[in-house]
Amino acid sequence: MDVKKRGLLSVAYAGVGMVFAAAAKFDWLSKGAAASFLSLSWVKFRAPFMPRHLALDLGRTMFAALNSVEIGLCAGLWLLHFLVSSDTGDAVWRLILATLLLAVQAAWLYPKLQLTAEFALYEALKEMDDDSMSFNQKMQFGEIRHQVQIQDRPRVIYHILYVGAEFVKILTLLSFALHFLKAIPA
């Protein structure tokens, strides 16, 4: 997914964050938890009839889209905070921490994981017959081949750092959401 499409998705979800005001505090948490610990990590590799290259391609495409959704929800929460919220205490620090973690993931770690996925996809597809690919697939594979040839394979530490940041971010968002619930008058 190119930067323009990711930007449009992010803007669209910033609006969603405003529309769903209070729900957005839980939406980011739920999407992050579901994407990180279920759909993107191990579920796709458990499907017995899904070829590895298809699971890898599906995973990297979903990962890009959900990363954009997270950015949009984060922007929506900040807009919500500045336009609606009167709370300036602990909750702000939780949102700042979640935002910083997301920024590090999106700007530094995500490109490394994307390149790792391209290396794995290249390895899975390099023996495939060109006649079995569509024109679009050949073009995409050419771009992947070029990236793999001009760059070094990222180290596994980037994946570990991403998972660690995701875990801390989810705990932070859970704390943020619970803080919001406690602030609601009984």
From TrEMBL:
Could you identify this protein by its name?
Answer: DUF4149 domain-containing protein
Has the keyword Transmembrane helix been applied to this entry?
yes
Q: Which organism is it from?
A: Phytophthora cactorum
Q: Keywords for this entry?
A: Membrane, Transmembrane, Transmembrane helix
TM regions (residue ranges): 7-26, 61-80, 92-110, 156-181
